User: Which sequence fits this backbone?
């Protein structure tokens, strides 16, 4: 598995959040999660302008094997979605930490970030899951 | 406890993702499931199917016994080595299991049944066999490797002893024969499969299975997991026991009418119920669905038709078609415009005749 970027925060359910300028948060799923799901074939993106709530389903990724909800790490308004995934859902398999991002949210409550795992804690979670 | 095939360590060494499948620890994929699927459609892939149960039947009345046990007729098996696909039914006409039966001698037949149904199948077969004095012998000492794809037969033939090659090359579809593999290992080679491609399913004594697997890998056969096996068999229009039919479903309702032989004077288990159902009119039918929009059809999704609700049985993204296909069981009669409920959204689907894919290519109308 590729190294976990140190600047990311995580849900226990394997979504990552990257805090960007202007209170924006980019959301994706971890490399571990894409490996578990296997080849992705369809991504149901949220709509721009939709409001999402931390811990609630905001998108769906479907692999050959199964459909999985993507739980938003933070609450707020969706301001951008990764349209590339409509035609190339496998981008998530290829680059989960980068090009495979799913949506960007303008967060409404910065304090929610404190509820997320840092990279070290997430790495530990994944290691424990594997054994 | 989870059972392991003799190839378990080989799968793990290849980095396979392992899952529990009917009580067996099996590889679902080694790398990309879609690439494994394409390897079988375009070249050659191999599956460890050693979890499947091999049962040998011996005795003077074995043929009579199988005429009673199976919904298809072993009378169709004229030459030694020929194989037949059949359902084994209960008295109500429900499917206990689907299986392949091989005719190996006048007093010797071999069954290959599913892994998840092993215990109930053995109990049922033994119970029915008693009256015919047939000996029922499980053969757990066999491993089984399915080698499938347009180049599968050529790659296997290259590994056989010279004296066997021409004979095995001529082996017809749904027929089996003994042959010597690498280092003289004894193989039972059957030209059968569960992918819609040509190929062989090979029974090999467990102690030789790893050597056979490695020889196949060296010959360029790609390991493929149960994930690819599932999408391949769905595209090929083949039922999966437990998902597409079970003891509450008759072959009429599972599109398996072609496997029922209502030959004169043969009193097989479930026949009376099947004839009754047919006379009364079968209430549910199994159909093929294609979703042209984005999304994936999955087991359990609700199917909406003019005649009422149905349900998706097997459903998946089909890698050869790059869209989702499924089997569904719906009320008989004119279905009208059919829709599937995916997470609360009703998406239109097309009703099609399947198989969806045969010999590497999409079928007409898919």
Assistant:
């Amino acid at each position: 598995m590729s190294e976990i970027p140190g600047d990311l925060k995580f849900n226990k359910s394997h979504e990552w959040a990257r805090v960007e300028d202007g209170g924006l948060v980019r959301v994706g799923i971890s490399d571990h999660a894409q490996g578990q799901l296997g080849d992705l074939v369809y991504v149901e993106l949220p709509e721009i302008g939709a409001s999402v709530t931390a811990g609630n389903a905001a998108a769906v990724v479907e692999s050959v094997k199964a459909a999985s909800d993507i739980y938003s790490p933070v609450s707020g308004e969706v301001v951008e979605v990764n349209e590339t995934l409509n035609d190339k859902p496998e981008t998530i398999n290829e680059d989960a930490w980068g090009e495979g991002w799913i949506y960007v949210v303008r967060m409404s409550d910065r304090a929610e970030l404190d509820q997320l795992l840092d990279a070290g804690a997430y790495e530990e979670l994944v290691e424990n899951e594997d054994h | 406890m989870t059972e392991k095939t003799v190839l378990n360590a080989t799968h793990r060494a290849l980095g396979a993702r392992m899952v529990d499948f009917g009580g067996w620890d099996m590889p679902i994929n080694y790398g990309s499931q879609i690439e494994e699927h394409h390897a079988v459609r375009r070249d050659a892939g191999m599956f460890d199917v050693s979890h499947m149960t091999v049962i040998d039947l011996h005795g003077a009345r074995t043929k009579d016994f199988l005429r009673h046990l199976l919904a298809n007729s072993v009378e169709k098996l004229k030459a030694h080595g020929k194989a037949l696909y059949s359902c084994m039914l209960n008295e109500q006409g429900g499917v206990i299991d689907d299986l392949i039966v091989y005719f190996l001698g006048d007093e010797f037949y071999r069954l290959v049944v599913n892994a998840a149904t092993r215990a109930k199948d053995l109990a049922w077969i033994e119970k029915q066999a008693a009256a015919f004095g047939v000996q029922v012998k499980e053969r757990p000492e066999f491993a089984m490797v399915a080698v499938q794809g347009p180049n599968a037969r050529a790659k296997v033939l290259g590994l056989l002893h010279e004296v066997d090659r021409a004979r095995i090359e001529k082996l017809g579809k749904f027929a089996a024969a003994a042959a010597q593999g690498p280092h003289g290992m004894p193989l039972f080679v059957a030209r059968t499969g569960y992918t819609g491609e040509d190929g062989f399913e090979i029974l090999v004594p467990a102690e030789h299975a790893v050597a056979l697997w490695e020889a196949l890998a060296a010959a360029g056969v790609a390991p493929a997991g149960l994930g690819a096996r599932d999408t391949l068999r769905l595209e090929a229009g083949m039922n999966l026991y437990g998902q597409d039919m079970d003891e509450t479903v008759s072959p009429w309702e599972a599109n398996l009418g072609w496997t029922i032989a209502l030959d004169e004077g043969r009193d097989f288990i479930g026949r009376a119920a099947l004839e009754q159902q047919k006379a009364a009119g079968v209430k549910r039918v199994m159909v093929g669905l294609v979703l042209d929009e984005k999304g994936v059809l999955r087991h359990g999704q609700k199917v909406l038709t003019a005649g009422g609700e149905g349900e998706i049985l097997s459903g998946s993204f089909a890698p050869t078609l790059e869209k989702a296909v499924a089997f569904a069981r719906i009320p008989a009669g004119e279905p009208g415009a059919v829709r599937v409920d995916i997470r609360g959204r009703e998406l239109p689907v097309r009703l099609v005749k399947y198989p969806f894919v045969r010999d590497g290519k999409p079928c007409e109308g898919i």
User: Anything to note?
Assistant: The helical segments of chain A are 31-37, 84-87, 91-94, 119-130. Chain A has a mean pLDDT of 95. The domain at 9-125 of chain A is CATH 2.40.50.100 (OB fold (Dihydrolipoamide Acetyltransferase, E2P)). The radius of gyration of chain A is 13 Å.
